[in-house]
Design goal:
about 120 residues, mainly beta, six-stranded mixed beta sheet, four-stranded antiparallel beta sheet
Length: about 120
């Protein structure tokens, strides 16, 4: 089973960039679609981006389309989320997980600790 560990969060000014990483243990990492989700205080967890097992198929929430890029390196068992043009409303805890598919997006691994992203105005 894939167990992800997120890193790369921090405090950044609006308009800035961050790159999140998700290192996933497990020999079958490359078999899974992966997704990034986020949760702001007092809000439900929401979908951000998904990538298929080969890295070809990618989907984004409308709120991040054109600003965020998801990618993966199967040799390194790692998924990335490049976040550009950050806005205060992007402030949230960010989590990655294996998902059932890039369109179904149902998480299939337990949620990890996540990594906090804070965007100041």
């Amino acid at each position: 089973q894939v167990q992800p560990v997120e890193s790369g969060g921090g405090l950044v000014q609006a308009g800035g960039s961050l790159r999140l990483s998700c290192a996933a243990s497990g020999r079958t990492f490359s078999n899974y679609a992966m997704g990034w989700f986020r949760q702001a205080p007092g809000k439900e967890r929401e979908f951000v981006a998904a990538i298929g097992w080969s890295g070809i198929r990618r989907y984004y929430a409308d709120s991040v389309k054109g600003r965020f890029t998801i990618s993966r390196d199967n040799a390194q068992n790692t998924v990335y989320l490049q976040m550009n043009s950050l806005k205060p409303e992007d402030t949230a805890g960010y989590y990655c997980t294996a998902i059932t598919g890039v369109q179904s997006r149902t998480p299939i691994t337990p949620w990890g600790q996540g990594t906090q992203v804070t965007v100041s105005s």
